[in-house]
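Hi! If you just cloned this repository, the fastest way to understand the data is to look at a raw example. We've pasted two of them here, unedited. The first protein comes first, obviously.
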Amino acid sequence: MPLIYLGLAAIAVDSFLWDLPRWPLLALLAVAFAIYLRLGTVRRPPVEVAVPVAGRWVASNSPVDRVPSHHLHAYGQTYAIDLVHEPADRRRPGLAWWPLARRPEDFPGFGQPILAPADATVVRARDTERDHWSRTSPPAMLYLVAEGMVRELAGPGRILGNHVVLDLGGGVHAALAHLRRGSVLVRPGDRVAAGQQLAACGNSGNTTEPHLHFQLMDHPSVLLAAGLPLRFARYQVGGADQAGVPHNLQPFTAPGCAAPSRRGTAGGSRGRRR
């Protein structure tokens, strides 16, 4: 997005102040859009990891139902999944006209432990972004769109909010985003084990309500990364053990510490883009 805005601004300034060749500016825009849309998707077997949460959750924006799961390949999120905590004994606030926004503490996911999906090394850790109120009303959703544009200008860190990036080995990295401010328990260079608590679920960055944004990618920087397909080693749906990725809006229960097998996982090849 910064490149896109830079290209548009350059064309606008050129129209009024200078008479420069347009083709370099148009080429800049073309490159910016290609990066933003991430033309080229990695094709490879899914990387198997443990579910990075425990308890009853709902899958949202699942790559099982749509790729790219968040409508864009940008920021390495081709196969990303959002995990929203929805315990059986507490109702989660939904979309409504009133109140316009809610405190993050009103949502059951706020403060829930976020766990390491595999044995890994911490590459990045950030936890200084504030946890903002929800965007769970139609006016607040419109505000989220405008807010997102500003966040993109400020860089990917403002989109992810508080986050941790892990190096799983074999060219595979995991990003866990929208964490609670001050909750990150690890620092770059730390070694973590599968199931170890990394932080707490928060509502920082470009988000509507407290949830965990989780994705695998082929580079530690979301600006340069392509998303990698993933599968969870074990979770339960209706009391039955499953492996893979839950469907969109499907409730599931995560055991909290199910280490993945190593077959076809992070040690595999990077795959190819098409």
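Ok, and the second one:
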Amino acid sequence: MALFKAMPDKFDLVITDMTMPQMTGDKLALELLKIRPDLPVILCTGFSQNITKEKAKTMGIKAFLMKPLLIKEMAHTIRKVLDKAKESTQAKR
């Protein structure tokens, strides 16, 4: 979080897990999106009663993935999220 606050424009994408020390992935995403509302965030989880795909989308998280993850699935999701971010940036110009 400190690195992101120091250089928010240096990040193209953030991939986070729901379960992390000190801060859950959904809370991290909210903090990041306060600084950069356009930032694509992918949230991963194995199981959570606190977050659903629908809730994540409402929060501004661009993709929600359930573990275990397949590399192909992760790669496809990253490409899709980055392409949508690029389209959105170009549309604003």
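That's it. A detail worth noticing about the second one: The longest strand covers residues 41-45.
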